[in-house]
Write a structure and sequence with these properties.
homodimer, 280 residues, alpha/beta, Rossmann fold, 2 domains, 7-stranded mixed sheet, 11% strand
């Protein structure tokens, strides 16, 4: 997905929010504003937004000295999500269509996102996600693809959300390789977060090697791109991975909640929609 | 008022909105983003926000070639406000305290603002402004100051709002000099807009000479600053004039609706409040 003009105010907003979490030094936060603003000239509208997100958070790190402003919030998200796990697991057990319910739960988990401008209430969002219709539902093809797949490459998004992904992985009934980021970026899941969520008990955990908030292949390591190229079926969670992978010629199912008007417009949906979308 | 860190995303938002009204050429709009972003380094947190607003809209003009993106919206605002005028005039006539009602109406008119992020509904806002309490009400001192004044310097803000100001000027029962901007900037009133609103029939119209969206004295012409320095009582409308004049040692009453969290915080009020505040 390309960068839209509306992304520019959002880049500044994200930089401001992250810098304020990283430091209380107003002069340093002002410098983050200055440096991110000065960076606009180098941002091509043809680049995916997470490529700029990566640079924005690098500036925050460089100027504030804090490499992981969202670290504590990630731990809190995981703890809150783990507290919900028994209830989510019971919901799947009671469902007529367990895979569909697990998909809904995995999408509900995508509400956990400190990068976008939306505030969220994890429990309320779960309730909504479990009852409302999908707005773009490729569930049929998804069910078929899972049935045919020998194994699945599952690209995760945020910490906390990992717990919801565990529910879906358990329902897929296939060997799963679960992919996390190579370094802390916003509240995206790393190996540490995936392990805290217990994903190491249901999937093979690997890092993509990227430090971008989305799986931009040029920023991933060779070990991952080799696995990616051979994957027969990919589940991609969240906006950042959609923004990075939507142009790819692979069998990918994007599971996400649209959290900004730009991604919603690009997908042909409304902001706030629950989306299960086959690529292309 | 100084510039807050929250102003930076807002500068970019304003630049984007104005550029989109000024042109449909995406490359030019991108250049506006680039140039405004690059400008951040030169913005001191000690400067009043309208000083940057001025530079932002200069960039929009320079890059898009459109000197007055909001011209048509201003005309529409004035027409809509003129259609409300008979009803507003009747409301004052029926009031027990005509001056207070006229003050409320003048503040209600301050909702007309295309610079901030708020959408507005002129008629609904008028209804709200006429019934809700002032959140910072220096009405007593205001009434006394008007009674004692030989003449009043009234610094206007936006086109359309001028019609609401006419209602207050008619209720003041004092000679009024009404001040407009020296050049089009956002939807701020110029001489043309004030005349369209019929203000030339109730006040002496002058320009401050500024091309900023607020009366930053350093950007005003000598004719105005001389009148300003001699003024015994000043009525200042809107956020931009408050941001520019709030540090001044003059008898000023600020009449406005707070339309952004930064100004609200600075005034010690909530966003959306109706404010009549004596300086200091």
């Amino acid at each position: 997905m390309k960068t839209y003009l509306d992304c520019f105010p959002c880049f500044i907003n994200q930089a401001l929010r992250a810098a304020r979490i990283a430091t209380t030094d107003e002069a340093k936060i002002k410098r983050v504003m200055d440096e991110v603003g000065a960076m606009f000239r180098e941002i091509s509208l043809e680049s995916p937004p997470p490529a700029t997100g990566r640079l924005v958070y690098q500036k925050v790190h460089l100027i504030t000295g804090n490499p992981d402003p969202y670290g504590q919030l990630k731990d809190l998200s995981t703890r809150n999500a783990l507290a919900l796990y028994p209830r989510l697991k019971a919901l799947v057990g009671e469902s007529e269509n367990r895979l569909l319910m697990a998909v809904r739960i995995a999408i509900a988990g995508n509400v956990i996102d400190f990068g976008t401008n939306r505030a969220f209430d994890m429990e309320r969002e779960v309730d909504t996600a479990l009852t409302r219709d999908f707005d773009t539902c490729d569930y049929g093809p998804f069910e078929d693809a899972v049935a045919k797949a020998n194994e699945i490459l599952y690209i995760g998004d945020n910490a906390g959300e990992c717990v919801f992904d565990k529910i879906l992985i358990e329902a897929l009934n296939r060997p799963v390789t679960y992919v996390v980021r190579g370094a802390p970026i916003i509240n995206d899941a790393t190996l540490r977060d995936a392990r805290q969520a217990g994903l190491d008990r249901v999937a093979t955990l690997i890092s993509s090697g990227t430090d971008a908030p989305g799986t931009i292949l040029e920023t991933c390591d060779e070990a991952f791109t080799s696995i990616y190229n051979q994957a027969e079926l990919i589940i991609s969670k969240g906006q950042g991975n959609y923004e990075a992978l939507s142009g790819q010629e692979k069998e990918i199912f994007f599971l996400l909640k649209t959290k900004c008007p730009v991604v919603a417009r690009n997908m042909g949906t409304e902001e706030g929609d629950l989306v299960l979308k086959a690529n292309p």
